[in-house]
Amino acid sequence: MDKAEIIRALRELSLYLEIDGENPFKIRSYLKAADTLEHTQESIEELINTNKLRELEGIGEAIEKKIISLYKGEPVPALEKMRNKYPESLLSLFSIPFLGGKRIKVLFEHLNIKTIEELKNACLEGKIANLPGFNKKIENKILKGVELISKWEGFHLIDKGYEIANEIVNKIVGISNIDEVYIVGSVRRFTETINNVDIMVVTQDKSEVIKKIEKELDITTSQKSDSNSVEFIYKNIKLNIHFSEPHNKYTKLFYYTGSKDFVEKYKFALKRKGFEVDKEFNIFHHKNRIEVLSENAIFELLNEPYLPPEVREILYEEDILKKRIDRLIKEGEIKGIVHCHSNYSDGHNTIEELAEYCKDNGYEYLVVCDHSQSAGYAKGLNIDTVRKQHDEIENLNIKLKPFKIFKGIECDIRLDGTLDYPNDILTTFDIVVVSVHSKLEMDENIATQRITCAINNPFTHILGHPSGRLLLTRAGYPLNYEKIFDECLKNNVAIEINAQPQRLDLDWKNVYKGMCRGLKFVITTDAHDIPDMRYLSYGVSIARKGLLTPEDVLNTYPAEEFINWFKKKKR
DNA sequence: GCCGTTTTCGGCCCGACTGTTTTCAGTCG
Fold this sequence. Notes:
The chain is an alpha/beta fold. Helix content is 43%, strand content 13%. It binds one DNA strand through helix 2, helix 4 and helix 6.
């Protein structure tokens, strides 16, 4: 087994033990060990061969033994026992809100419920309200959760899409008879979630290439196909391989990148200009096929500016789009990394390690934002720890000069809209990011009021992950965005674009709307370790989809300008 | 399960919400 599979097995075991009613600390120890392994740079081979597993936090004798067995592909008795006792499909029930190990066990033992489908039917028949640990309200909440999960079935986060798309490109690009390979579809356009990966292959020998791709990817079940595309399932994701020939690769690149509505709009515009467009997006003029030598050439036919894939959507006002399209923000323009967690709270790196990473990668500043005191689950900082952290930052600022570390905090917004520290502590931070982490079940009025109150707090600088959504897991609370945007403008508060792939919050459509109202943004990594820093590019893609330019994004500003923007605040 | 030790075993992250069981179990972040 490789490292990822071992980590999955440890987490699987912890879920089984939760159903089995084991000691909660034992359950947590497997999760902790999996977490540690995930955040360790060394390969699993190295850790085992140099006997270093036990040196890692949370890995003792028993878990070490299990990891070694898993690595060698030998059975782990504890895991085998659980797999024999409970069906594997039972674990999928953990994705439903309000279902934990205890209730899942009751469902299994009383009604033999093993799948989400069976759970849904039992809810609809009103069978679970009377079970021990359940009631009518919980039954309704579970049914609601099941319906949400079903809506997202088959969808994946964009990072998974990228990972799979790149893996496929790397695997097939060397196949003889393939001229070129492109990532197309929603992955190329950077939608936050995807339900398939689209790859376009340029070849003159389609049937031969299909066979070779099947062999290379070890997939044989071609689900359905037409003359241009073949559909497979690869690692649980729907994979479409589209084909083009060298002479029509750019029109097909445009066509398969989409979005569907965007392509339709351009097709219509071409027809209005006197061109003919066939089903495969070949373009003709007076029956003569036009040689299209780049994607840009399609835009030129319409005297339109080239639009990068991220903005090939139907949303924008034409004049706003045209004014901004040449100046869309680029990743290289980001000068400071904002909202990172250190090992003071639930991050895995020291502040110095984070700062060194930023420095080495050419950034000018870092804003450390650990969790505030009421976030006990994430080791939120009490007041003494805040002071200790500030001393450390001051010392590091002397050591690392001219690199600058700002004292930030991700401060919880409490249910009544107040912040999680008294004013005399809030005033010691350079940057206060305010976020909602708990009590998320709110209607639009309550949520808007709570967040408005936090925006109006004189110490607030940035509103963090505004919607509270976790993509494909949790919808987040509804908000009156117009009101929130206006309050931010009034109070000189910026809005975060959180680049974590499960958040991507603020949503790009709202980024566009906020930009139109004149809001300022900060693209943050919300990194909990150094590898998480790679997500910055995701945040930049969301900003580009929202048509942001560097002027709209405060962390493209040099350190002094960045911090001065917030000083305009009236206290 | 792990960890730190008074090296044999107690503590481990915890406050808040929910529904209803008026004292707590289950779940969540």
